[in-house]
């Protein structure tokens, strides 16, 4: 296991579109475990995407189980995730390990349906909403080279300087 280096804005590599995963082998599973360790090491890390650590493949991990009293699926390893249905719109505050100094208000779908491959290569489908749906949409954006900064309606009104994290 190893902590991976996180690319931070304005690194241009964060704009790269990631490629689908074609083969799930031991090397990839070891990478997923390093990616997860890197996510859990970060402050408030509820999600991470492979391109944030310079690996431009379509993998994201989301785990919002640290947030009490919300509907969620626990630890999700999403390989080649695809949102198949969106419903509702809501503004919410987001942060990102690649944008450590800011948070921002972003409009996301409130409910989504999602299909993806799990670590065994099995196709899974889930429906989710609220905070978990937001986290998933945020991570899938990374796979398409987008940051929450790209989705702010107004930089002046929707971008907020973050308080320094306690280590
Ligand atoms: Zn992010």
Shape: globular
Beta-strand residue percentage: 25-35%
Helical coverage, percent range: 10-25%
In whole angstroms, how far apart are the ends? Answer: 21 Å
Count of helices?
A: 3
Secondary-structure element pattern, one letter each? HEEEEEHHE
Description of the molecule:
The chain is an alpha+beta fold and 167 residues long. Helix content is 20%, strand content 34%. It contains 3 helices and 6 strands. It has helices at 26-41, 130-143, 155-158, and strands at 47-49, 59-62, 76-96, 99-117, 123-129, 159-161. Strands 1, 2, 3, 4, 5 and 6 form a 6-stranded antiparallel sheet that branches. The longest helix is centred in the first third of the chain and has 16 residues, at 26-41. Bound molecules: zinc ion.
Question: Could you outline the blueprint of secondary structure elements for this entry?
Answer:
Elements: H1 26-41, E1 47-49, E2 59-62, E3 76-96, E4 99-117, E5 123-129, H2 130-143, H3 155-158, E6 159-161
The structure holds zinc ion (ZN).
């Amino acid at each position: 296991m190893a902590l991976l280096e996180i690319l931070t804005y304005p690194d241009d590599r964060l704009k790269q579109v990631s490629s689908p995963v074609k083969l799930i082998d031991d090397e990839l599973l070891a990478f997923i475990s390093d990616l997860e360790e890197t996510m859990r090491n970060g402050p408030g890390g509820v999600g991470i995407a492979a391109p944030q650590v310079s690996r431009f493949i379509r993998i994201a991990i989301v785990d919002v189980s640290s947030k009490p009293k919300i509907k969620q699926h626990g630890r999700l390893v999403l390989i080649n995730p695809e949102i198949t249905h969106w419903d509702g719109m809501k503004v919410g505050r987001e942060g990102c390990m690649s944008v450590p100094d800011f948070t921002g208000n972003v409009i996301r779908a409130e409910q989504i349906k999602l299909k993806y491959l799990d670590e065994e290569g099995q196709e899974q489908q889930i429906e989710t909403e609220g905070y978990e749906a937001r986290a998933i949409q945020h991570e899938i954006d990374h796979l398409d080279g987008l940051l929450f900064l790209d989705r702010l309606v107004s930089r002046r009104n929707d971008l907020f300087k973050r308080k320094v994290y306690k280590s």
